[in-house]
Amino acid sequence: MSSSLMFRLSPIAAAVLAFHAAPAVAQVAAAEPAATLPTVKVEDSAASEIKANQVSSPKFTQPLVDTPQTITVLKKELLQQQGALSLSDALRQTPGITFQQGENGNSTSGDSVFLRGFDTQGSIFLDNVRDISPAVRDLFNVEQVEIVKGPAGTDNGRGVAAGYINLVTKTPFADNLATGSFSYGTRDRRRLTADVNRKLTESIAVRLNVVGQDGGVAGRDVVERQQWGIAPSVAFGLGTNTRITLFTQHLFQDNTPDGGVTAIGVSGYRSADAAAANAARVPISNFYGLDADFEKVDLNIFSGKIEHDLAPGYKITNLSRYSRTTQDRILTAPLQAPTTTGDPSTWTVGRSRQASYRDNDLLTNQTNLRGAFATGVLKHEFSAGFEFIQEAQFTPTFAVTTTTPAQVQTRANVYNPNASDPAVSLSQNGAFADGETTTGAVYFFDTLKFGASDEFQLNGGVRIERFRTETSAVVLSTAAAQPTLPVGTLVPSRLSDSDVLVSYKVGGIYKPLPNGTLYAAYGVSMRPPGGDNFTLSATTTNINSPALDPSEADSVEVGTKWDLLDGRLAANAALFRTVSINDLARQVDDSIVQYGERRVQGVELGLVGNITAAWQLSAGYTYQKTKVSEGVIATDGTSTQSGAPINFSPENSVTVWSSYKVPVALGTYLNGPLTLGGGIRYLSSQARTVSNNPNTITTGIVSVDDYVVVDAVLGYEFTPKIGVQANIYNLLDERYVASVNNSGQRYSPGVPRSFLATLNIRY
User: Fold this and answer.
1) How far is it, in rounded angstroms, from Cα 232 to Cα 106?
2) What is the dihedral sign for C-alpha 525, 528, 529, 530?
3) Under the phi-then-psi rule, with left for phi > 0, alpha for psi from -120 to 50, and beta for the rest, what region is 624?
């Protein structure tokens, strides 16, 4: 472990020890039940370890089995079994989710998630508050991950057609518990985590979560990941009518960014150059960046939540949050098709060197009232509230500042790149974009129950929000845009956009049995320009142009949900259809246009829970058919987007994870359960399309082969307090393409066979 990380971990370790050693005060009474904070309640029953019954948002008034929408909940117990350390690790185990690499000359930072064919990176939430972090999200302080599929606007405001992802923060509960783990894995990856909860009095508890990680990335040369984080929290009033929770999270990352591998030789790669088209595939370990590349992320979140029980069945909640995240990064990535003159050992590929700096700020206050009442034979369970949120992002522009011979050295050898090549110098050139979006919203949700045993229910919600986005920007003048100014003159501009967005959803429910539901639902979601980065652009072909109308998503879902085996196992099946209107698309020439419709329809199946007390299962299947139902004709008039599938959207995706605890007696001191488990992930082939004619694409990756990845886990508990776990990722060493950039000239390889061994301690 590097000395810098050890220096950072030492105060964390000291804090954990001091935290655990702090004497408990007045612990003579029985522990209060943790019903006030159900997401962190400690339960002994294996029946509820991986099956969730409720999501964290107060806007969902019913348990999952009675919610007319497909929702997948990944609890921390399941994530620990799978060896998932980041949000991307967790989402790979969910069908219908894929990842993409980003723009042609740059790579997307953070978690680049596509849900049911739509970019969901801007619809990731933390405790139901929009999370604008550019960091790769770590799970050290996450209780569970909730994937809500369908229109997102009614629940949380502007959002994409396919849904959203919500992470639930760990907070204190009225009990004493401490867990810790130390992991070591492939490429010298080391990770330390601790989670300590202490009940100081009958109504006061504190909790501390920490993480430290250092080491390389399996299958990749040079790439390094280093981070440390701390998340202290305190709760007052547990078990009383008024509860106050104060919690913060701080995460610092110092990484070597990864721009991927040149796509030459990959199955599905095309090139007009015959030599390149038939060339051998480069090793997936090749690093095309430079030693001077870096990425530093500083994330700080401060939150406060007040809950008050007004009367039996009525609760008011207020959540306030301020967060600030900065990212400073220089990344070098392979960009163009390779030159193929002479011996292949001398071939070179262009490299793009990009610098980026992002400063994100968020300030929000949410107030929610939940209650229940009756009007005649109708029973109402409602949730209503309002929200104010201000989000901002500052991004300066960087440019090459030297014209030394180093600029010539930005090309890399195709098969033997050198990270020590000279680097082009980059610095801020005075141009920038400074955007801010202010939103005020009100919402109301209600579930009406009627019939002899509440077997008929009507569930609906509406959200009305007014937003205003303002952007102050400075650009460098060009001969075409500002012919009267010297080229490179700094030109300021100011843009604004405002509107009122109305999102809603409604669902009808019939319960033939108390443990089962048949439902049909419809919803509408809106997404305005600048909705993801709060920054508008004066370029009419830019995705954030205020001249564009908000895109609208209409979603229909028909399905059924059942709690089986005395509630231990949850099963669901759904037919869905989502149509995105006034959508945005990238044409053949990479310009952005607003056209008619994109459509995704398909089937989703799910099963999660315990088949027996020892046998756990989490499985899902998604079939989706994507289509640009109303597209535009390309500028050359030879092709049209109408009828083309959405880029890199596999028709079939399957995830299965199962584990079994076997009682094993190996001696006096080895008499605990042995956990055997594993999983399978399958994605069918994916196409990169800009038109309905795949032959129009002549360069780069045009299709990604289907693949199957097998993972495994072996765990043993020496005592109830000490256990070990070994995760093997990609057990069969499948070679596959995990994500591709827009031009198809580079990709991120799938993680090869690798391992992570963990020592777990609980007391």
Assistant:
1) 35
2) negative
3) beta
C-alpha to C-alpha distance for 729 and 187, rounded to whole angstroms: 13
CA 701 to chain centre: 25
Separation between Cα atoms, residue 261 and residue 215, nearest integer Å: 20
Task: Measure Cα distances from 463 to 88, 156, 188, 458, 725 in Å.
Answer: 30, 8, 49, 17, 45
**Dist CA 363 CA 468 (whole Å):** 15
| DSSP characters over 361-402 | EEEEEEEEEEEEEEETTEEEEEEEEEEEEEEEEEEEEEEE--
Q: Read off φ and ψ for residue 275, nearest 5 degrees.
A: -65, -45
Q: What is the DSSP letter of 667?
A: B
Q: Are 133 and 58 in contact (CB under 8 A)?
A: no
3-state SS, residue 459: strand
Q: Can you give the residue range of the structural domain that contains 243?
A: 3-762
Tens-digit pLDDT profile for residues 8-31: 444 444 443 344 444 333 333 333
In angstroms, the Cα distances linking 559 to 57, 65, 67, 317, 556 are 22, 11, 10, 32, 10
Q: Kindly report the number of other CB atoms within 10 A of residue 661's CB atom.
A: 19
Total domain count for the chain?
Answer: 1
- Alpha helices of 304-355 — where are they, by DSSP H? none
* Residue 302 token pair: 């401060």
Instruction: Give the integer Cα–Cα distance in Å for 649 and 600.
Output: 10
Nearest of 751, 763, 757 to residue 217 by alpha carbon: 751
Q: What is the pLDDT of residues 356-398, one digit of tens each?
A: 999 999 999 999 999 999 988 899 999 999 999 999 999 999 9
* The token pair that represents 83 in the structure block: 């060896």
Residue 757 CA to residue 713 CA, distance in Å, equals 10
Q: Tell me the residue type at 332.
A: T
The CATH number linked to 744 is 2.40.170.20
How far is residue 30's CA from residue 26's CA, in Å, rounded to a whole number?
11
Nearest residue to 276 (alpha-carbon basis) of 292, 294, 262: 262
Q: Name, in order, each residue with C-beta under 8 angstroms of 287's C-beta and a sequence gap of 6 or more.
A: 220, 221, 222, 223, 258, 417, 419
DSSP calls for 621-658: EEEEEEEEEE--B-TTSS-BSTTPPPTT--SEEEEEEE
SS3 152: coil
Cβ neighbours of residue 482 closer than 8 Å, sequence gap 6 or more: 489, 491
Burial of 255 (0-12, 13-18, 19+ CB in 10 A): buried
Amino acid letter, 47:
A
Cβ within 8 Å of residue 438, ≥6 positions away: 389, 390, 467, 468
Q: What is the pLDDT of residues 26-62, one digit of tens each?
A: 333 333 333 333 333 433 334 458 999 999 999 999 9
The single residue listed with the structure tokens 């989402």 is 91
